[in-house]
Design a protein that fits this description.
- The protein is mostly helical.
- The protein has one domain.
- 78% of the residues lie in helices and 0% in strands.
- The chain is built from 13 helices and no strands.
- The longest helix has 29 residues.
- The relative contact order is 0.22.
């Protein structure tokens, strides 16, 4: 992995590692669907303004807009609505654990839809990484096993994983069609937020807003960093090294989330969690430092 690609990997890991905690401040008075609308509408409008100021190309064909629309409703719409709904019923750490399994769906869809290789190094690294993640959150899993966790929340997580992977694949395809990441994200986030905006009245919900510092601060952080910065760098990485290897951010981000939990929620580290961190990073090194296959 080149130094720039490594940077594009590390920054989203740290940002998304913190967003699991930030999303918790979005849950309360405002319906999760409405919070998703606010988040990506802000991000989309800001990226549009940035593109206009930088005089980037904003004129595309109907087919190209359709591709950006599909990416928006999949990756920045229904995907995040399901994440927010899951976090209403499950601890953020448990959601992070389940979401780490996106590594496998990324590999599968990359193979199925983009004719990618099923690389044994990536599969072995994914197994090590997920084993490490489960060990890291072993204590939290034991506690959550005593909870009456409904199948609905689990289905929200699994649905989000599938949509996130399909969104990654679509972004990779869009980049092969010479659609630039920044402008594509600008349109996709805007389209995704507008589609979710239509879902609000159709689903019987209503628009509200929570005028508190935690809600507004977390909304701005999720819009600026969790959406604009992280997704711009990550999707560039997807275009460079493929969705299977770029998807390893979903294994590193939970470790960052755990560190934040240690500081703010008094998470207690132990030998099992330390072994988990070792396995997780061993898996990432195995997958990310391998030589790219010639095609």
């Amino acid at each position: 992995m080149k130094p720039k690609q490594l940077l594009f990997f590390i920054i989203p890991c740290f940002i998304w590692g913190s967003t699991w905690f930030a999303i918790k401040f979005q849950l309360g008075q405002v319906d999760p669907l409405v919070s998703v609308v606010y988040r990506f509408l802000i991000a989309g409008v800001l990226l549009m303004a940035f593109s206009a100021i930088r005089k980037l190309n904003l004129r595309y064909t109907f087919r190209e807009h359709l591709l950006m629309f599909l990416q928006g409703i999949i990756l920045f719409g229904f995907n995040y609505w399901l994440v927010y709904l899951a976090e209403e019923d499950l601890p953020s750490g448990v959601v992070a654990i389940i979401f780490s399994f996106a590594v496998f769906t990324n590999i599968f869809f990359n193979y199925l839809l983009l004719k990618g290789k099923l690389r044994k190094e990536v599969m072995a690294g994914a197994i090590l990484g997920i084993a490490g993640t489960l060990l890291i959150f072993n204590h939290e899993l034991q506690n959550s096993a005593q909870m009456a966790i409904g199948y609905k929340a689990l289905l929200f997580c699994l649905g989000s994983i599938v949509l996130a992977s399909l969104g990654n694949i679509l972004s990779k395809y869009n980049q092969t069609q010479k659609l630039p990441v920044i402008q594509t994200n600008a349109f996709s986030m805007t389209y995704g937020s507008l589609a979710m905006m239509l879902m609000v009245p159709l689903s019987g919900r209503s628009f509200t807003f929570e005028v508190t510092f935690p809600y507004i601060a977390s909304l701005l952080y999720l819009s600026l960093f969790g959406s604009i910065v992280a997704f711009t760098l990550y999707l560039k990485l997807v275009g460079d090294i493929g969705p299977d290897r770029a998807g390893y951010t979903t294994l590193v981000a939970p470790v960052i989330a755990l560190m934040i939990s240690s500081f703010f929620e008094n998470y207690q580290w132990g030998i099992v969690a330390a072994i988990g961190v070792f396995l997780l990073f061993a898996g990432n090194i195995l997958a990310l430092k391998m030589k790219p296959l010639k095609t």
